[in-house]
User: What shape does this take?
Amino acid sequence: MSPEEFTQKSYDYVICGGGTAGLVLAARLSEDPNVTVAVLEAGESRLDDPLIDGPNLFIQTWDKPEYDWCFKTVPQKGTEGRVHGWARGKVLGGSSAINYNMFSMASRQDLNNWAELGNEGWGFDDLAPYYRKFETYNPPSKILSSKINDKYVDPLLRGTDGPIQISFCEADFSWHQEVWPETCINAGYPMPKDPRTGSAIGGFNQLTTVDPKTMRRSYSARDYYEPNAGRPNLTLLTKALVAKIEFENSDSKDATATGVSFSVDGTTYSVKASKEVIVCGGVVNSPQILELSGIGSPSVLQKAGIDVIVDNPGVGENLNDHAATGIAIQVKDEYPTAEVLIRSPEITQQAMEAYIAHKAGPFTNAPTTCGFASLKLVDPDLADAEKHVQSLVEDYLKKHPDSDPAGRDALLARQVLDPNEAITQIVLLCIGADIRNCDTPSKLFLHDTPGNWIVMGGCSTRSLSRGSIHIQSSDPTQHPTIDPAYFSHPLDLDLSARTVLHALKLAEYEPLRSKLKLDENGDIILHPGVAFKPKTLEEAKKIAEGNTVTEYHPIGTCAMLPREKGGVVDSKLKVYGTSNVRVVDASIFPTHVQGNIVSLVYAVSEKAADLIKGKATDGMNGH
Assistant: This one.
């Protein structure tokens, strides 16, 4: 459809962003044939693109403008002044099209925090039905089940008929998937339970967002949009960059949106919305769209030459990301790792042909090996943990008294001390990494050190460091300034350092240990990018500062909180100071949750669709 045809019609709902969240809303709202829905997406549709479909080809999409926004952070003081590349999906399906396909679950307390912060209806039990609604769990075959150790999954807690397919990979299996669960048990981890119970402590092979029948990535464009693309009341325009939300001039206390201004190939157009404008741009673009539209801090807007329509200094603040500290360890030559693909174009070509022709081989198997560990598991010898954690939190608040008007840090400190809650997600990747390449995500796993390598990644589960994303100009093509403020809170660095020491200890347990290459002293061999093997907490902090990257899970820039506590949207996801603008994506998360967040974006979007339709349920009466 041409932009001219698109703008000749008026729509009930105009959705800004055809990403993970936007396409869920488009599919659900257009279920009502009497409602018209339009979606504006800056990227293109790449349905049937093998680089997106192939579950383990995602790195090939990063840093390519036809898939990726190619965002960069400002230099990060907490990570030795490094700039970090942020891969975010600029394509139909958004980041669900280019992520690792890893599928986690927020803990019970993660979501109950949201309710405690003043968001009624957003606790764990409220969202559980929406997790089930969006997914179909595909149990593994008997043969794979014996290898993958899937016994922790409780099928009764899983969805059976949702659009997003989740599974374990049947078409490829790697040695590290077999040794990982047993290694964690031998290291003292408890037998894992299904994370749907509300706690994920343990080491296991995690599910992935892959359709086992087709061996393709299951993502919002494929499974929410494509089956419904023919609906006469659903209209999509790609390559359409949102410039701003248009508001009518009125004297009412809440601004009313009338439509959206956008550009295609440099030409500006305008589309009308008779009911609502719904912003689904993601953590970077959603605050950018609000600020371009005159919603935000007067100082930010005035500097960019934009008139203030709603004064809200919370827009673009509260940026919170999972930081991942990677330690690369050498394995014996007989245990294959992805280095073989990187170093041999012939083998890569064969693997690509195996995927395209037979849906088999290494490109079918997305990362699965992970574990969630509590502070007690990570550092059992920490004396008076409560006093230690509380003092770090209280000292920071004394120095930065305005940093936490919502009172989140006290909730997070309580969680850090809870033995049922994880302070880290340990991810084992069957490839080496050179973190010095962190400004270019596609080069992170490229390195020229000989041999086979794994990365033990210690990823934060809920950080206390909060940064910001703000526009620099009124030009929508100019990327906003991204400052995640990694390790600006001392508790984050402290926990990361303890996790580094813990990950190195995990490598001493069988059956993983016998797969590792050892030096003449019987010690594991670290990648040259890791300066030295730390023995003390202070040394481990140095390693964390030099070996930490994003886990690509930013949240919080349009936080769902009371307005006076820094909130941008209320518990119905309505933007304060407007009568008909909502934000639906990870930018509304008021606090972080453990693990990979795509599952929670789907659940939030499903709930948002019900809120908009006026039929949201809570956990008490099911769905």
The CA atoms of residues 102 and 302 lie 41 Å apart. The domain at 3-49+221-319+556-621 is CATH 3.50.50.60 (FAD/NAD(P)-binding domain).
